[in-house]
Backbone:
């Protein structure tokens, strides 16, 4: 192989295909904030960033706008300081359809999830079945040539997006779906032994894995919950965690008594 060919091969290996920096759920959340502030009007991108809580010099909001375009949720016009964005017809079908279990909204979410070319390629390769994270990362690195870090980020983002869009509900996915709720949910695990009460409070030991951190959360009941999470997390990992927590809600919570049931109990 010539030096030129080797350089070209190395250059291709060092570049990763473009993909949305955030998952679909986060993109829809940003879209909802934009709609709440501006409706369906065209909005300067700098003002959109302000609505999302990003500073004017942050690069994150530019990535967010790019992600919304990947999903087909905004259309833009103009350039530089004059650039504006507004909701696309696809975004309207997602945001404005308030019907529960709407098949049209579900179809729109599925369309948005697969609008990014790389998402569609992954979904086609696995024949419409969500693979395990390890299998997906292997495909991204060895078949598509992504570097390890972008591959891990994309894998988490893609799995979260597919779960949010409902694409993998009935396709026999290999352990990558969020856990079932209700009676089919897995049993509770015993709390880890390192969580020991001390002085009336809970004090976890530092995690052994330097990439894992314990986050204490004081709940309204004054109980303290701990989340052990990789830090920092990718958007895809965070969105999949949100999906998991929502799926576990029925198992983790108990119905709050209404006024009528409270009166019945008192009598």
Residues:
């Amino acid at each position: 192989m010539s030096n030129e060919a080797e350089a070209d091969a190395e250059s291709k290996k060092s570049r990763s295909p473009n993909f949305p920096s955030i998952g679909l759920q986060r993109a829809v959340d940003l879209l909802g904030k934009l709609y709440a502030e501006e409706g369906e009007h065209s909005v300067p991108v700098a003002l959109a960033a302000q609505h999302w809580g990003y500073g004017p010099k942050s690069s994150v909001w530019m990535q967010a706008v790019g992600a919304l375009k990947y999903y087909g949720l905004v259309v833009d016009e103009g350039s530089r300081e004059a650039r504006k964005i507004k909701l696309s017809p696809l975004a309207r079908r997602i945001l404005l359809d308030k019907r529960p279990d709407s098949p049209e909204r579900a179809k729109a979410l599925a369309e948005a999830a697969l609008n990014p070319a790389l998402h569609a390629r992954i979904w086609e390769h696995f024949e419409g079945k969500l693979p395990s994270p390890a299998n997906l990362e292997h495909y991204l690195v060895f078949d598509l040539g992504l570097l390890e870090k972008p591959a891990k980020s994309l894998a988490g983002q893609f799995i979260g997006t597919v779960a949010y869009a409902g694409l993998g509900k009935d396709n026999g996915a290999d352990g990558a779906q969020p856990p079932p709720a209700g009676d089919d949910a897995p049993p509770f695990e015993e709390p880890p032994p390192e969580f020991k009460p001390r002085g009336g409070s809970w004090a976890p030991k530092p995690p052994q894995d330097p990439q894992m951190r314990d986050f204490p959360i004081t709940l309204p009941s004054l109980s303290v919950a701990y989340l052990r999470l990789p830090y920092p997390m990718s958007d895809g990992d965070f969105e999949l965690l949100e999906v998991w927590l929502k799926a576990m809600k029925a198992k983790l919570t108990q119905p709050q008594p209404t006024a009528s049931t409270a009166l019945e109990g008192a009598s």
